[in-house]
Amino acid sequence: MPEDATSPGPQTPPAQTSPRIKGVITDWGGVLTNPLPDTVNAWIAAEQIDRDSYAAIMRSWVLQAYRDGEGENPVHALERGEASDQEFERVLAEQLRHVDGRPVLPDGLLARMFGATALDEVMLELIRSLKRSGLRTALLSNPWGSGGYPRHLFPDLFDVVVISSEVGMRKPEERIFRHTAALLGLEPRECVFLDDIEANIAAAQALGIVGLRHEEAARSVTWLRDLLGLPPAEDPA
After folding, report:
1. Model's pTM, two decimal places?
2. d(Cα 33, Cα 6) in Å, to the nearest integer?
């Protein structure tokens, strides 16, 4: 999801550990990668996309998809796998323009939008370490584009992988959280969830899942290790 739909929700580290937590569920883009606004801004600059045209369609589509929660729009269809990447790219490109007024090429639009994506090695190592410690780990992601995951990394990171377009459900729908917890063999209350979208965190918390809105790696690492009663991460230096 390329743009935040809600205002930040400040969070503080837990006052005590939670030994009941047995599983960690995490988003991908913006949590295990660099922030999505940074990625999108790089694309806008590189292709000279008119920012107003992009912002207008994101406000309409993303706010409805993540905050209002009603109706249907191309984001719902893409994230549930009801529309192909090519169909979404065509509809999105029709709403965009370059700063000089030229139309935006739809072919490969999603790959270009996310071309500046970079893995966050600190967060990846956190998930690896939690999996090694015996916690169950899951990826729960709403993808924009089917080719953006380094799936060769998944075996070391996750016990379970849930991609919204592959299961016909999307965050923040209740059923996808229940589905992910069930695949882990856990109750929702036994899980913690990391995501960069406040609406997704709120939906998870409504089911009893402990939620953290991810903003930057150091804070999330400290928060999770405190919550789980784990020792501080070793300083790589």
Report:
1. 0.88
2. 20
Check if the beta carbon of residue 13 is closer than 8 Å to that of residue 230: no
Q: How far is the CA of 138 from the CAs of 117, 120, 130, 230, in angstroms?
A: 21, 17, 11, 19
Per 3-state DSSP, what percentage of the chain is helix, strand, and coil (rounded to 5)? 45, 10, 40
- CA 133/CA 169 separation, integer angstroms: 30
**132-145: per-residue pLDDT in tens?**
999 999 999 999 98
Read off the tokens for 140. 């729960």
* Alpha carbon distance 139, 154 (integer Å): 9
* Cα distance between residue 135 and residue 137, in whole Å: 6
Q: What is the pLDDT of residue 159?
A: 98
| Residues whose CB falls within 8 Å of the CB of residue 73, separated by 6 or more in sequence, listed in order | 60, 61, 64, 65
Query: CA 19: distance to chain centroid?
Result: 26
For position 230, what pLDDT does the model report? 84
pLDDT digits (tens, 9 = 90+) for 2-61: 644 443 443 444 434 455 899 999 999 999 999 999 999 999 999 999 999 999 998 888
Residues 214, 31: contact at Cβ < 8 Å? yes
**Would you state the structure tokens that stand for residue 35, as one six-digit string?**
């922030």
